[in-house]
Every structure is written in C-alpha cells, then in structure tokens.
Amino acid sequence: MRIRHIRNIFAVSLITSTFFLTGCSIQERRGIREAVKEELGYLEHPDTQTIEQYLQEADLFPDTETSKTSNPTVDPAITEIFTEFYKNFSYKVSDIEYDDTKATAVITITNLDTKALAKDYSIAALQKHIEEDANPAQVNFSLYDSYLLLGEILKTHEYDLTDSSFPVEFKKENDIWEMIPDDRLENELTGNFLTYMADSSFLSPEDVVKIHFDTIKEFDSEQLNIYLSLDSMLDLDDTYSSSVTHAIAQQIHQFFDYEIKGTKIGKTNATVTVSITSADFISIIDTYHKKLEEWMQTSEALEAGMFGRREKEREVLLESIKNNQATTSKEVKINLINDGTNWKIQMDNKIAEAILGGINEAVLTTDDNEE
Q1: CA distance 220 to 236
Q2: Whole-number Å distance between alpha carbons of 158 and 109
Q3: Which stretch of DSSP H or E encloses residue 327?
C-alpha cells in the first residue's frame, strides 16, 4: 500500500511539474507570437488608415504632400497599391527558442510572387523611360509615377503565392517580448522585392535589348520621328519635310523587326548580336531615280520648266517612299555596360544605320540630285 501511495504521489508530482513547465512554455511562446503579431498583424488585413500611417512614418514619399503639409496625407492611389500588394499576405511562426531574455523564431511569410512582379515592373519601367525619348513633352518619370506604374501592374497581372522563411530575434524587457529591429525585415516583408529591384543584373543584356526594340516596334510614326530625330536629317522646307519624315517613319514602323543571334556577358560589359530588319531606303532611292529618269524623257518634263521639274522630283520621291515594299537586314553587335544600376545600351551609328535602313545614304543621294 505504501509503495502504491508513494508511486501515486510521484506520478502527481510529475504531472504537476509538467503542467507548470508547459504552462510557462505556452506563456513565453504566446508572448513571442504576440510580439510578431504586433509587428506584422496589420499587414494581414491592411486598411487605408493603417497603410497611410505606415507610409507617413516610413517617409517613403519625401517629394509628395506627405512631407509638405502640417496635416500630411498620402494619395489614396498610393495606399491602394500597398493594400493590393498585401491582399494575400499571411505569416506563420515556428521553431521558437528562448531563454530568460532572448529568443529566436522562424517566420514564414506567404505573399505574391514578388520576383515575377519585379520582372514585370522592371520591364514596364524601362519601357516608360524609352518612351520618354519619343515624347515631345519629355516629362520625366517621377517616383510618384513609379508607384502608380506598380499599382497598374498589380491590377492587371495575376501572381502565384510563394513562401519565404527567415529567422527573427527577440528581446524581453519588463516581461514583454519585442522583436529586435532589423533592416532585413523590411525587405523580407516585401518578399525580397527590394533586393530584386536593387540587382543591377536583374534584367539581362538580352532582356534590355528586347525591351528597347519591342518598344520601338510599338512606336507610331510621330514617336519614331522624334526618337530617331528624322526632321534633323532633312534640310527641306517645313511642309515637304513633314510629309517625307512622316512617310519614312511609316516605312520603319511597317518593316522594323529584329532577331537576337547571340550574347556574350562579362562582369560589366556585354555584347548582344542582333539582325535588324528595316525598310530598304537604298532600294527606295534606286526606284526614285529610275522613275524620275523615265519622266525626264517625256515632253511633260520639257514643258514643266525648272520649278515644275523640282516639284516632280519631290512627288516621285514621296511616292517611292510610300509605295516601297523592299526590306534590308543587317547584323550588328550591340555593346552594353552595367553601371551598377542596370545594363545600358551604348547607342552608336551602326545601330542607327540598321534601324534606318540606309536612310543616311538615301538623304545624301537625294541632296546631290536636287543640287
């Protein structure tokens, strides 16, 4: 009986000890989880007021009304972007280890695939910068525009959800657990979006070339005129010059294409070999000369006089440009330099000549004829 009694007391003692140990463990773990919730909980169901307060405290928009008024406000369009970014955000806390004053835990964040988002944004941003060069107003792409572009991409694209895990440290003060501030945490909370955007090689040299040329292919005739500075190539009167440059731009718009043949990448230098197709302006000039020569043999040419012949030359040249169907292709090596921000194309005459399809020679030939 005594042995059984002692055994029962021992069992109760173990159960009681286990209870207190477990109770202590649960309390500490709960405190750590509450510390995580304090820092991350607002991102699970972000509302406009919470996001606006976060943006003001972070001072992410120093060039906007946030820092210019005594009652700062954040543009609703900006808060909507962050709400969209975190609409599927969630987190889990695991692998908690702690002692009296310090603790570590692994946090797993679920959010949209920010690598895919960063790629789409980088492509769209580069397109915007290229389009600036074809914009007569030449309005600079601002930080505000960058955020609006990000919001547009978030609204028009669907992204898978991905998980990322990372360790976080805690400290205990006055019996309360707190997360230790860590600059890395900000990046982790964006799914490493900031890391992708800071990577100067995130877009490859081939990507950069494709984005440039794909953007040029989408330019209309007016944008091509500005981007390629066609007006400056023709020393003609305004009305005729406008007609010719418009026809030239339409030809490039119709026939411009490219094919990447190969890429060589070094540490800070790269070369992308590209076959560029464009309207064949040498062929256009040959056609122009043949038609003009045929007309010069007619009686109409004799009767037209000097002024009439000049007008006919212009008419034939414009028709030869508009009616052209001939193309030409030229293989060029495009050099790129990584300046620590991204890969940048080093534009040169060979690239321009290929895009312009021999137009420089065509202009020279035309000038000689008019003299």
Answers
A1: 22
A2: 19
A3: strand 327-338
> What is the mean pLDDT for each group of 10 consecutive residues in the chain (371 residues)?
42 42 69 90 75 55 41 67 86 90 93 94 92 77 83 93 93 90 81 88 96 94 88 71 90 96 95 96 92 91 85 92 95 95 90 86 54 47
pTM: 0.79
User: Could you please report the per-residue DSSP string of 150-184?
Assistant: HHHHHHH----EEEEEEEEEEEEETTEEEEPP-HH
Query: Strand, coil or helix: what is 124?
Result: helix
- Beta strands 90-98 and 257-265: pairing type? unpaired
Residue tagged 């080093």 (tokens)? 346
Provide the Cα torsion 304, 307, 309, 310; round to 10°. Answer: -160
What are the φ and ψ backbone dihedral angles of 165, each rounded to 5 degrees? -120, 145
Rounded Cα distance between 346 and 369, Å, is 34
Cα–Cα distance, 91 to 177 (Å, whole number): 18
Distance CA(186)–CA(177), nearest Å, equals: 20
What is the C-alpha to C-alpha distance for residues 106 and 84, in angstroms, rounded to an integer? 26
Residue 134 and residue 125: Cα distance in Å, rounded? 15
**∠ CA 320-297-368, rounded to 5°:** 55
